């Protein structure tokens, strides 16, 4: 069954947009980070702290494969780094997959993330200036992987409903 995959940098709105999309098109939404937390019984922060990022990427890849191989139709919200490790980007073009990159500018990401960073181990300890620089560099490095998505939707200056409508018209 079809899998609709939303991807993009931390703070681009994947989960919020996926929840509204799920309500409108009546297809269940699974957040990959939450799925990993349930599967391991650990928060994303504790996985990073206890086992390190490489271990997290391994678990993330396995969890992504599990969801892709399940027989149900679903919307999957990836973690910001998912497409960039373990050749996960190649899975964005698979059969029965519709992948959508939610593209946001550095400014949008910075504004959203500076208010909400404690649950994100990669940026939790950075001050504003460090964070802006980190986002700019990281987004540049990751763009290649994000651009492997079949569709791209800009989210800057749009409401959640506008972005959801853009995705609904892609799916039509
Ligand atoms: C990460 C993004 C997070 C989470 C982990 C690593 C990343 O997901 O998977 O903290 O590498 O960008 P969100 O994009 O949902 O915050």
Automatic annotation (TrEMBL):
<keyword id="KW-0479">Metal-binding</keyword>
<dbReference type="InterPro" id="IPR027417">
    <property type="entry name" value="P-loop_NTPase"/>
</dbReference>
<keyword id="KW-0547">Nucleotide-binding</keyword>
<comment type="similarity">
    <text>Belongs to the shikimate kinase family.</text>
</comment>
<keyword id="KW-0067">ATP-binding</keyword>
<dbReference type="GO" id="GO:0005829">
    <property type="term" value="C:cytosol"/>
</dbReference>
<dbReference type="GO" id="GO:0009423">
    <property type="term" value="P:chorismate biosynthetic process"/>
</dbReference>
<keyword id="KW-0028">Amino-acid biosynthesis</keyword>
<dbReference type="GO" id="GO:0009073">
    <property type="term" value="P:aromatic amino acid family biosynthetic process"/>
</dbReference>
<keyword id="KW-0963">Cytoplasm</keyword>
<feature type="binding site">
    <location>
        <position position="57"/>
    </location>
    <ligand>
        <name>substrate</name>
    </ligand>
</feature>
<dbReference type="GO" id="GO:0005524">
    <property type="term" value="F:ATP binding"/>
</dbReference>
<comment type="function">
    <text>Catalyzes the specific phosphorylation of the 3-hydroxyl group of shikimic acid using ATP as a cosubstrate.</text>
</comment>
<dbReference type="InterPro" id="IPR000623">
    <property type="entry name" value="Shikimate_kinase/TSH1"/>
</dbReference>
<feature type="binding site">
    <location>
        <position position="33"/>
    </location>
    <ligand>
        <name>substrate</name>
    </ligand>
</feature>
<feature type="binding site">
    <location>
        <position position="80"/>
    </location>
    <ligand>
        <name>substrate</name>
    </ligand>
</feature>
<comment type="subunit">
    <text>Monomer.</text>
</comment>
<feature type="binding site">
    <location>
        <position position="120"/>
    </location>
    <ligand>
        <name>ATP</name>
    </ligand>
</feature>
<keyword id="KW-0460">Magnesium</keyword>
<feature type="binding site">
    <location>
        <position position="142"/>
    </location>
    <ligand>
        <name>substrate</name>
    </ligand>
</feature>
<feature type="binding site">
    <location>
        <position position="15"/>
    </location>
    <ligand>
        <name>Mg(2+)</name>
    </ligand>
</feature>
<keyword id="KW-0057">Aromatic amino acid biosynthesis</keyword>
<comment type="pathway">
    <text>Metabolic intermediate biosynthesis; chorismate biosynthesis; chorismate from D-erythrose 4-phosphate and phosphoenolpyruvate: step 5/7.</text>
</comment>
<dbReference type="GO" id="GO:0008652">
    <property type="term" value="P:amino acid biosynthetic process"/>
</dbReference>
<dbReference type="InterPro" id="IPR031322">
    <property type="entry name" value="Shikimate/glucono_kinase"/>
</dbReference>
<feature type="binding site">
    <location>
        <begin position="11"/>
        <end position="16"/>
    </location>
    <ligand>
        <name>ATP</name>
    </ligand>
</feature>
<dbReference type="GO" id="GO:0000287">
    <property type="term" value="F:magnesium ion binding"/>
</dbReference>
<keyword id="KW-0418">Kinase</keyword>
<dbReference type="GO" id="GO:0004765">
    <property type="term" value="F:shikimate kinase activity"/>
</dbReference>
<keyword id="KW-0808">Transferase</keyword>
<protein>
    <recommendedName>
        <fullName>Shikimate kinase</fullName>
        <ecNumber>2.7.1.71</ecNumber>
    </recommendedName>
</protein>
<dbReference type="Pfam" id="PF01202">
    <property type="entry name" value="SKI"/>
</dbReference>
